[in-house]
Amino acid sequence: MTAAMRTFPFPEKKMGFIDLINIRLQANKRLQNEMRKIYFDGKIPESVIKGLIPKERIREDFNLAFNYGIAAGYLKFIYGKNKVMVEYYKKLIQYKGLLKEWHELSENERNTWIIHKIPDFSMLDFGLLSQTEVDILKYSGKFTSTEMVKKLNLSSENMKNLLIKMNDKYLILFSAFI
């Protein structure tokens, strides 16, 4: 072990493969127990609530889980609590390239792509949605954002803000196709 490695909490003795595996298992068990405690206490870490974990990181966690069966502790015990989020990333990853998030769209795509509702209506708490958001979800799969502006008699700016908000809440994605 080099002097630089002394910052890690390894004993000074030589360890075999089994010793290293056991240390790793103990660390994973402590982490999973902490995640379970957070889950069963009903507490979602502030970093998730406030959006401090970048969406790219969350997306990568779901990508590893859905495509390779590698599920991080946060995915199992924290993200998994939000069924709408799970459904959102499942669709986004399953239809890679066909469905996009708002920030991935070009200016032209923002006006011409179809809005798609992601979660089932049964998964939603309608008390947390405005009537306009409910209408957008109700008409999703049929209209572009430009057409939706006319249908709901909204300003383009108001529609843009609503679509960003709804995309950030994992409610909608966008596609060139119906």
Give a written overview of the molecule:
This protein has 178 residues and is mostly helical. It has 2 domains: 17-76, no CATH class; 102-175, no CATH class. It is built from 9 helices and 2 strands. A two-stranded antiparallel ribbon has the order 1-2. The chain is elongated, with a radius of gyration of 21 Å. The relative contact order is 0.11. Mean pLDDT is 85; it is low at 1-7.
Order of SSEs: HHHHHHEHHHE
Could you tell me the radius of gyration in angstroms?
21 Å
Task: Please list the strands of the largest sheet in the order they lie side by side.
Answer: 1-2
Which structural class should the secondary elements be placed in? mainly alpha
Tell me the major beta sheet: 2 strands, antiparallel
What does the overall shape look like?
Answer: elongated
Whole-Å distance between the termini? 59 Å
Assembly classification: single chain
Number of strands: 2
Low-confidence stretches: 1-7
Overall number of domains: 2
What is the gist of this entry?
By secondary structure, the chain is mostly helical.
Notable traits:
mainly alpha, elongated, 178 residues, disordered N terminus
